[in-house]
Amino acid sequence: MAEVLDRVDGECGELVLRRVGADFEVIANGVFLMDTRNGESERLLVSVAADFVPGKARMLIGGLGVGYSLRAALDHPGVGEIVVVEREAAVIGWNRTGPLRDVHGDALADDRVRVVEADLVDWLEETEERFDALCLDIDNGPQWTVTEGNAELYGKAGLDMLAEHLCPGGVLAVWSAEASPAFTRRLRARFGQVQVLDVPVPRGEPDVVWLARV
User: Fold this and answer.
1) Partners of 166 in the beta sheet?
2) Where would a tag sit more exposed on the chain, N or C end, judged by fewer CB atoms within 10 A?
C-alpha cells in the first residue's frame, strides 16, 4: 500500500513523493520517475565517469533524484567539487531536509556540493563553467524525456553544447532506463570514444549508461 508523503505542483507538473514499504518513489504527472529500491546504475553513472578523469575531478550531476548519484560521487576518491543542477524545488527539499535525506546520508550537507535550482538546458546555455565529467540523469532516457524541452539535449545541437562544457579529456555520462540505438549513433558521430554499458536490473530490460569522450 502506497502512502503519499507529499504532493506539489512542480516545474514538470504534479510531483508526488510516496512511501511503499521501506522504499520511496517519486511520481511525475502519474508516471513513475524514480525510487530507492536499487540505484546501482545511478551510482555507476558517476563512479565509472570519475574513473576516466584526473583525480579531484570537477563534476556536474544533472538531476538530483533520490541522491544515489551524488552519494557515489562523494564516495569516489577521484571527485572534488560537485555541482548538482536540479529544477524541482520539491526534490531538493525532500533530499535536504525531508525523508530522502537518510537515503544518502545527508549528502547535500557536504562542503564539496553546490546545488543549483535551475533547468539544466537553460543553465548550460547561460553558464561558462566547464567540468571534467558531465553526468546526466534528468529523464528516463533520450526517448523518454520528462518534458519536451529536455529532448534537445540528446540531439546534435545538445551534444555540441555538452561537449563545450567539458574540460580537455573530460567525459560525458548519460543514464537511461532503456536502450537507444539512435542516441548511440548520434554520440558516435560527435565523440571519438563511446562506450555503452548495460546494467541488469531486478525487473525488465537493463538500464543503460553511455560514456563519451572527444
Assistant:
1) 131
2) N
Residue pair 176/136 in contact (Cβ under 8 Å)? The answer is no
Q: What's this model's pTM, rounded to 2 decimal places? A: 0.94
* CB contact at 8 A, 190 and 212: yes
Task: Compute the distance between CA of residue 107 and CA of residue 101 in angstroms, rounded to an integer.
Answer: 8
Q: How far apart are CA 94 and CA 83, in angstroms?
A: 18
Residue keyed to cell 555503452: 196
Q: pLDDT tens, 134-175?
A: 999 988 788 878 777 788 899 999 999 999 999 999 999 999
User: What's the average model confidence in pLDDT over 125-138?
Assistant: 96
Q: How many CB atoms sit inside 10 A of residue 197's CB?
A: 15
CA 62 to chain centroid: 5
Distance CA 30, CA 127 (A): 33
CA-CA distance, 152 to 106, in Å (whole number)? Answer: 32
Task: Name the residue among 33, 24, 40, 23 with its Cα closest to residue 202.
Answer: 40
State the alpha helices, DSSP H only, in the chain: 40-51, 68-75, 89-96, 120-126, 156-164, 181-190
Of residues 139 and 85, more confidence is placed in 85
